[in-house]
Design goal:
By secondary structure, the protein is of the alpha/beta class. 36% of the residues lie in helices and 17% in strands. The structure holds nicotinamide-adenine-dinucleotide and uridine-5'-diphosphate (UDP).
Length: 316
């Protein structure tokens, strides 16, 4: 007799976005049944078009600020615009997505007994006065600025996750993601990697905000997703928050030079005002990820930029 094979049913909110689409693909490779939920604010059907013919993949248009009733074993909560121009477009909706969305997804997890993962962010550290940032650092965040809808929304979501854990012993996994890049980013996303590559490919001026001496640490998407899966697989005691990112730290000027070199572009640099509350430096301390997950990034910036540039060429 054929043995019944039970596939894990996994909900990915924000599944049609940049990271969500890579996660859906990775989960399908692990033979999970995947329910991708997205309101398509920044996500695109094209990101998951290649998954639609898979009978284990399902897509649902839904806004997580409204309750959702489905039966699943695991939830990855990624829904939330991540690029500053996108999350500042409708800041009230951004806070609602982070806070009310988290309440709805935690309520769902509680009802069905699911393990739940939260895509938090290095933005919880704000403009940090400790460098690199360990998970124990509480951050330096402006509560009333233009980035606050995102930063404080994500901080409140973390609070909710840990209160559900303390009150209901819910299995939670919280990851703090540092700047990540790769194929499936929106070509008009507004984040630095997509902006610089699109500008370079079009031989248009590369827009450096401020002096360009501010730093970020860039993680390639495949490394990040491997970290997600490892964290979700840990025992109940391991909750995070845990930093996942690539400690390789670059100034925006260095990033621009690298993109120009790899694209062979004729672009020049132009300097624009620095957006308010723009953090001066950011680098993850990944000691915990190494020790608790046995995870560390493997793709150096130049190697990750090559497939990313190839992907963006279709939009030029
Ligand atoms: P993205 O904008 O490409 O994806 C977000 C997805 O969420 C989109 O598909 C969007 O349509 C969807 N969404 C937004 N609001 C929603 C709502 N109310 N209901 C349902 N769907 C909604 O961004 P991303 O880079 O893929 O980021 C995914 C997650 O990771 C976000 O939660 C973000 O905060 C977090 N994160 C990303 C980075 C990064 O560098 N990419 C860094 C830190 C944190
Ligand atoms: N940035 C820039 N030019 C751009 C877009 C962004 O110089 O066209 C800078 C931005 O001011 C910030 C850094 O690049 O210092 C990273 O910005 P991004 O929006 O990618 O993410 P953040 O880490 O600020 O959320």
């Amino acid at each position: 007799m054929k043995k019944y094979h039970f596939n894990k049913r996994v909900l990915v909110t924000g599944g049609a976005g940049f990271l969500g689409s890579h996660l859906c693909e990775a989960l399908l490779k692990q033979e999970c049944e995947v329910l991708c939920v997205d309101n398509f604010f920044t996500g695109r059907r094209g990101n998951v078009a290649h998954l639609l013919s898979n009978p284990s993949f399902e897509i649902l248009r839904h806004d997580i600020t409204f309750p959702l009733f489905v039966e699943v074993d695991e939830i990855y909560n990624l829904a939330c615009p991540a690029s500053p121009p996108h999350y500042q477009h409708d800041p009230v909706q951004t806070t609602k997505t982070s806070v009310i969305g988290a309440i709805n997804m935690l309520g769902l997890a509680k009802r069905v007994g699911a393990k739940i993962f939260q895509a938090s962010t290095s933005e919880v550290y704000g403009d940090p006065d400790i460098h690199p940032q360990p998970e124990s650092y509480w951050g330096r965040v402006n509560p009333i600025g233009s980035r606050s809808c995102y930063d404080e929304g994500k901080r409140c979501a973390e609070t909710l996750f840990f209160d559900y854990r303390r009150q209901m012993d819910l299995p939670i996994k919280v990851v703090r993601i540092f700047n990540t890049y790769g194929p499936h980013m929106h070509p008009h996303d507004g984040r630095v990697v997509s902006n610089f590559i699109m500008q370079a490919l079009r031989n248009e001026p590369i827009t450096i905000y401020g002096t360009g001496e501010q730093t970020r640490s860039f993680c390639y998407v495949s490394d990040l997703i491997a970290g997600f899966l490892k964290l979700m697989d840990t025992p109940h005691e391991i909750t995070g928050p845990i930093n996942i990112g690539n400690p390789g730290e670059f100034t925006m000027l260095e990033l621009a030079e690298t993109v120009i070199k790899l694209t062979g572009s004729k672009s020049e640099l132009i300097f624009k005002p620095l957006p308010s509350d723009d953090p001066k430096q950011r680098q993850p301390d990944i000691t915990q990820a190494k020790e608790k997950l046995g995870w560390e990034p493997t793709v150096p910036l130049e190697e990750g930029l090559k497939p990313t540039i190839k992907y963006f060429k279709q939009y030029v």
